[in-house]
Amino acid sequence: MRVDALGGTRLLYNLRFRAILYQVLAVGGIVLLGLYLFSNVSQKLAEQNIATGFGYLSREAGFVISQTLIDYKPTNTYGRAILAGIVNTVWVSAWSVVLATIIGLFVGIARLSRNPLLAFLAFLYVEALRNVPLLLYLFLWYALIVTSLPTVREAWEILPHVFLSNSGLTVPSLMWTSAHSMILAALILGGVLGVFIHRRATAQRITSGKSRRTWPLVAMALLIPPALALLIVQPDFTISLPEKGRFRLAGGSQLTPEFTALLLGLSLSASAGIAEIVRSGILSVRKGQWEAARALGLKDGLTMRLVVLPQALRVIIPPLTSSYLSLFKNSSLAIAIGYPDLVMVSNTTMNQTGQAIEGIAIFMLVYLGLSIAISLFMNWYNSRVALKER
Amino acid sequence: MIQSKSMARWLAMGLIAGVTALSAAPASAQSTLDTVKKRGKILCGVSPVAPGFSYADDKGVRRGFDVDICRAVSAAVFADPDKVEYVPLNTNVRFQAVQSGEVDILSRQNTWSFTRDASLGLDFGPVVFYDGQGLMAPAKLNVKSASELQGAAICLLPGTTTLQNLEDFFRPKNIKYESVVFENSDEWRNAFFTGRCDAITTDRSDLASVRAIANDPSQYVVLPETISKEPLAPTIRQNDPNWRDILNWSVYTLIGAEEKGITQANVDEFLKSEDPEVQRMLGVNGDFGKMLGLDNKWAYNIVKSLGNYAEVFDRNLGPKTRLGLTRGPNELWTKGGLLYAPPFR
Questions:
Q1: Is the same domain home to B239 and B206?
Q2: Mean per-residue pLDDT, B39-67
Q3: How many separate domains does chain B show?
Q4: Complex ipTM, two decimals?
Q5: In this structure, how many other beta carbons lie within 10 angstroms of the beta carbon of residue A333?
Q6: Boundary-marking domain end, from B228, B245, B271
Q7: A139: nearest CA partner in chain B
Q8: Residue of B6, B124, B142, B183 to mutate, testing the A interface (most A Cβ within 10 Å of its Cβ)
Q9: Percent of chain A topping pLDDT 90
Q10: More confident residue, A51 or B139
């Protein structure tokens, strides 16, 4: 392309200028299109006398949400209700991610086991779970829980004060107050302190070559902050025991069948995918690594943990990120089995207020924002485990 | 070469912009009646499955009370009750479907309420069924009244006024309850039948259909309280007064015919009636049809093809059907009910 030579005087023929011009025009075009669509929608809605805007978020919601992690009452606003939904979505997704990763890791390793029975079982597990739509599994798990367990009035007392029924697992619980939160904070502080001391001791040992006894220090770091907190705030340890009321069990904490079925469905289905990712990661590590590790006298388990998995992680992390993202987004199927996630709360809100466009915009933004947060975190982690060329 | 390429690019962009502008142009220029006549059928939004109100029979033909409202309008417009295409809609998208013009009438057990009327760009036709939210519990729980439900778990469907009504009813009584909300009505019913919930709540007419589906309906009792007012009325867009008149008077024809004792069987005899109002209604005298932009036989066609309100009610919901509902408030005003047609004058 000898465009420059033809007419350096004419800016339009400048290759760099044209490249920038195209990009500016393309971006400008998209922005204009977006603005046009936005103004068109607002105008149409106004013409049809349909209310618009986000003012409704501060109105009273007036409906109950059966399980919330944050404080929520029907007298709170729609905004608060949606927040409770977001927290529920994050809660169930976070637990599912943890469970799916653990199960996936073990099944992935089992797929490569030299024991044919174990390998075959792992193969069956993966194929059965990843080839059936998640929604059907959700219905299955939910139906299994609700139909196979007795009703709450005939609940099984599997341990003293622990009841299992088709309304969930009810266990005794501590009456939580702010004093308990302080003790928890002290415990975490102690833990952080302990890890810090341990790390410093290890670093010292490596540089100086002398090993000292550090466990008494670590134990002190762990125990003293919570003990102090206990002495200062002196909380009541009232245990709330579940008791059979006329309809339900009163008191205690409850693990509902809706949450359980969703947790099972999400984590089992995702674990099948993760198992395959783990397997491909392990297979990507060259045979020579295994042989070298064995030559050093490492047993199979240790070889896997110390040599193979760290290298496999580089292959595992990028597709794992996608699995986490799809798990998170799949949690929106919760509504099918009655778990009050973001989508359910938004749907109720949209129906009561009739403001569907705003409602959908909110939950698209929330999913988008949280998904981006997950991928940013995973990318950061990926760059940490990536091969560092020195 | 480079220039012609960029020309092509500009053309393409212009084309895209033009198409978007065109497709977004107002579609409401034509009246609904003209659109419907041109299309040759009415688009009617209904419930996917609601025994008695809207369901497909064993031959796949859609039947029910809500369906008959659309058929009445079709009879008025086309002299044929079957020029209707049914669009099954769930509760979440029903109003958007009317707003966007996907359906001409929404006849789907919709509760007429202030916010819906005032903020959704919708208009409601006459109330075709006076309903109210009720609760149902298994008989073995021995619940006599909704006020006893302290601590109970209650199954409900989202996307309706149900949730708020329940809260409005229980909050002043200081009753705490657990709500379990399902999107899908099969899951919702099953959760109740399997005992996940102690009670189920929805409109009383709908409770009757849930009970009708149960293996043994006698195991379930509907509690006496009616905790809300649910006037069910067909819904249309706000921008077409003529279409609204057609819907209104099609429904009033059903009610008016019952008031006058006109039925599907005897409507032809009534053509010879001396009653001037009947003459105006059935198009023997006057130009009432023309005023609506319809044939003067419009009301005759409705009664001829569907009968009057009582016949429509009995056929779909009455004591001889599986739902077994009595008229209750849906009786003529002359018999102590709430149904009343303005005069055909």
A1: no
A2: 92
A3: 2
A4: 0.70
A5: 21
A6: B228
A7: B187
A8: B183
A9: 41
A10: B139
Question: What is the average pLDDT across A114-119?
Answer: 94
Asked if the structure places residue B120 within a domain, the reply is: yes
The conformation of residue B262, written as its DSSP 8-state character, comes to: -
**In chain A, what are the domain boundaries?**
3-47, 78-135+252-385, 177-237
The answer to whether residue B24 sits within a structural domain is: no
Superfamily of domain A78-135+252-385: MetI-like (1.10.3720.10)
pTM above 0.80, yes or no: no
Q: Is residue A242 within 8 angstroms of chain B, CB to CB?
A: no
Q: Give Cβ neighbours of residue A49 (< 8 Å, ≥ 6 apart).
A: B119, B120, B121, B238
Q: Are B184 and B92 in contact (CB under 8 A)?
A: no
CA-CA distance, B275 to A83, in Å (whole number)? 63
Shared domain for B123 and B236, answered yes or no, is yes
Closest-CA residue of B relative to A53 is: B119
d(CA B266, CA B133): 37
Q: Is B68 part of a structural domain of the chain? A: yes
Averaged pLDDT for residues A201-213: 82
> Using only C-alpha atoms, what is the Rg of chain B?
24
pLDDT in tens, A79-107: 999 999 999 999 999 999 999 999 999 99
Query: For position B319, which CATH number holds?
Result: 3.40.190.10
Tens of pLDDT, residue by residue over A310-320, are 899 989 999 99
Query: For chains A and B, what is the number of CB pairs under 8 angstroms?
Result: 132
Measured between alpha carbons, how far is B139 from B283 in angstroms, rounded to an integer?
Answer: 53
φ, ψ for residue A98, nearest 5 deg: -60, -50
From A37, A50, A336, residue closest to B99, measured CB to CB: A50
Q: Flag whether B23 is in a domain.
A: no
pLDDT digits (tens, 9 = 90+) for B234-250: 999 998 999 999 999 99
Contact B153 A51 (CB under 8 A): no
Q: Is residue B3's pLDDT more than 50?
A: no
User: Within chain B, where are the H helices?
Assistant: 2-23, 32-39, 65-78, 94-99, 114-119, 162-170, 185-193, 204-213, 241-260, 267-270, 276-281, 288-292, 298-306, 309-316
